[in-house]
Amino acid sequence: MSFTTVGQARERLNRSELAVPGSRTELFAKAARSAADVIFLDLEDAVAPDDKPQARRNIVQALNEVDWGDKTVSVRINGLDTPYMYRDVIEVVEGGGSRLDLIMIPKVGTAADVYALDMLVTQIEQAKGWIRRIGFELIIETALGMANINAIAAASKRNESLHFGSADYAASTKARTTSIGGANPDYVILTDKDATGARQTHWGDMYHYATARMIVAARAHGLRAVDGPFGDFSDPDGFRAHAKRAAVLGCEGKWAIHPSQVALANELFSPSEAEVAKARRILAAMETAQKEGKGAVALDGKLIDIASIRQAQVLVQKADQIGDHAR
Ligand code: COA
Ligand code: MG
């Protein structure tokens, strides 16, 4: 390891993060009863401009009156370039901050954006005399935010997670797509001709680089990495494929923009029994190996070494975290 140690943000399960428009009060109690790990009540893009003042009032009331149980509750405020953001923060945090776990900041572009929010939230917490600190989840969804991602990740002790938002990111980078997180038939590799002259088309993931970069920045700063929305909620197979790719790279969860995506996200971001059983076998085999003074041994005909312990611990710790939450 480096001589620099990376402190970890507060631990929370973040497999599924259900989006709920702040204007649709009839959904609040349903969201609270859902199996989502995190609920975010939205003041930004799911709420029309004229509805923002009422949505703020709805959210304050819901923070105070809905029984959220042990859920992590977040509010997505409007961007720093809008005339709404300051009121979002002041009204929601002053009125409902004692039950608010996180503030989700959209379209973060620079570390100073996070700093400004930190200052505002700090003043409100001090004025209220609250000891508990509200955390930040930051959406990386613009070219500017991606360019400044490391400074953004380091910008506040409140930071808990980075999220990749593909739709706004595509718009910001002028990518040619109109889907929210879907596969793109124009992002392909065509193989060379085989002996019969046939060529194959392999679909690629146009968000691979952005997702991977977001994960590295998050992990380098001890934050959770969370994948954003998949808009086609009538395509569970598409969601599965997308979520699995994100999980394989290191994301620990994904947004759900419809309740049908919550169970899928919980399943796909929980290590399977088979994965955990294998990880425990690796740990047991390495414990025996180390007692025998060996750093590398064979298990099922494959090399395992001390790095295998670290890989296996990631899976076992996640399984334990999920087990603790279930109890
Ligand atoms: N949270 C909790 N419950 C929800 C919900 C949500 N976000 N979205 C839908 N439901 C409920 C519905 O009320 C309905 O409940 P019922 O069975 O008791 O009647 C059930 O789930 C099925 O909903 P359905 O009719 O399929 O959806 P809809 O047409 O009412 O709404 C969306 C579809 C996409 C508009 C809605 O899911 C939504 O607003 N999602 C969040 C969008 C958002 O916040 N986007 C911003 C982030 S990208
Ligand atoms: Mg967005």
Brief rundown of the structure:
With 327 residues, the chain is of the alpha/beta class. 44% of the residues lie in helices and 16% in strands.
Write up this protein.
The protein is of the alpha/beta class and 327 residues long. It folds into 2 domains: 16-270, TIM Barrel; 274-326, no CATH class. The chain has helices at 28-33, 52-65, 85-96, 111-128, 143-147, 149-153, 166-173, 208-220, 236-249, 260-268, 273-291, 306-326; strands spanning 16-21, 38-42, 72-76, 102-105, 135-140, 159-164, 188-190, 201-203, 224-227, 253-256, 297-299, 302-304. It has an 8-stranded parallel barrel with strand order 1-2-3-4-5-6-9-10, surrounded by 4 helices. Strand 2 (38-42), helix 2 (52-65) and strand 3 form a beta-alpha-beta unit. Helix 2 (52-65) runs parallel beside helix 3 (85-96), helix 9 (236-249) packs parallel to helix 10 (260-268) and helix 11 packs across helix 12. It starts with 15 loop residues before the first strand and ends with a helix. The structure holds coenzyme A and magnesium ion.
